[in-house]
Amino acid sequence: MASNAMTGGLVAGSHTRNELHVLHGDDEQRPPTRQSVSKTCRVCGDEIGYKEDGELFVACNVCGFPVCRPCYDYERSEGNQSCPQCNTRYKRQKGCPRVAGDDDENFDADDFDDEFQTKNHHDDSDRQHVTIHSENGDYNHPQWKPTGSFAGSVAGKDFEGERETYSNAEWKERIEKWKVRQEKRGLVNKDDGNNDQGDDQDDFLLAEARQPLWRKVPIASSKISPYRIVIVLRLIILAFFLRFRVLTPAYDAYPLWIISVICETWFAFSWILDQFPKWFPITRETYLDRLSMRFEREGEPNRLSPVDVFVSTVDPLKEPPIITANTVLSILSVDYPVDKVSCYVSDDGASMLLFDTLSETAEFARRWVPFCRKYSIEPRAPEYYFSEKMDYLKDKVLPSFVKERRAMKREYEEFKVRINALVAKAQKKPEEGWVMQDGTPWPGNNTRDHPGMIQVILSEGALDVEGKELPRLVYVSREKRPGYQHHKKAGAMNALVRVSAVLTNAPFTLNLDCDHYINNSKAVREAMCFLMDPQLGKKLCYVQFPQRFDGIDRHDRYANRNIVFFDINMKGLDGIQGPVYVGTGCVFNRPALYGYDPPVSEKRPKMTCDCLPSWCCCCCGGSRKSKPKKKAWKRPARETLHQEEKMMGKNYVRKGSGNMFDLEDIEEGLEGYDELEKSSLMSQKNFEKRFGQSPVFIASTLMEAGGLPEGTSPTSLIKEAIHVISCGYEEKTEWGKEIGWIYGSVTEDILTGFKMHCRGWKSVYCMPKRPAFKGSAPINLSDRLHQVLRWALGSVEIFLSRHCPLWYAYGGKLKWLERMAYINTIVYPFTSIPLLAYCTLPAVCLLTGKFIIPTLTNLASIYFMALFLSIIATGVLELRWSGVSIEDLWRNEQFWVIGGVSAHLFAVFQGLLKVLAGVDTNFTVTSKTADDAEFGELYLFKWTTLLIPPTTLIILNMVGVVAGVSDAINNGYGSWGPLFGKLFFAFWVIVHLYPFLKGLMGRQNRTPTIVVLWSVLLASIFSLIWVRIDPFLPKQKGPILKQCGVDC
Question: Would you say 179 is a known binding-site residue?
Answer without folding.
Answer: no
